[in-house]
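Hi both,

Apologies for the delay on this - the queue was longer than expected. I finally got the zinc ion-bound model through. Below you'll find the protein sequence and the ligand SMILES exactly as submitted, and right after that the C-alpha cells for the full complex including the ligand.
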Amino acid sequence: MKLKKGDEVIITAGKDKGKKGKIEKTYPKNDVVLLPGLNIFKRHLKKRDEKNPGGIISFPRGIPVGNVALICPKCGKQTRIGYKIDKNKKSRICRKCHSII
Ligand SMILES: [Zn+2]
C-alpha cells in the first residue's frame, strides 16, 4: 500500500466523492483506508432487550485505496505516488512536483 496514516486524500468514487480527509488508519491486507467522519453508514437496530434498546448507530466504513487519491502536501494537487530510490532508501515522491512526500 502506497498510502499511510496522516496522508491527506480526496475521495474519487462512491457516495463521498470529492470530499477530503486525513487517513486515520490503513488496512494493507484489505487495501482499505479509514477516514474520520467520512463514508459513514447508518444501521437501524431493533430493540432486543433492555440492554440493547436499538436505535440508529453510525459507523465508519473503510474506503478502498482505489477510490482515493493523494493530495500532495507540497503542491496541493491531487497526485499519484511514485518512488525514488536513493542510497538504498526508498522515498515516496509526488508525480506532479517531484517533491519527496
Ligand atoms: Zn506535489
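Main takeaway for now: The domain at 8-94 is CATH 2.30.30.30 (SH3 type barrels.).

I'll put the files on the shared drive as well.

H.
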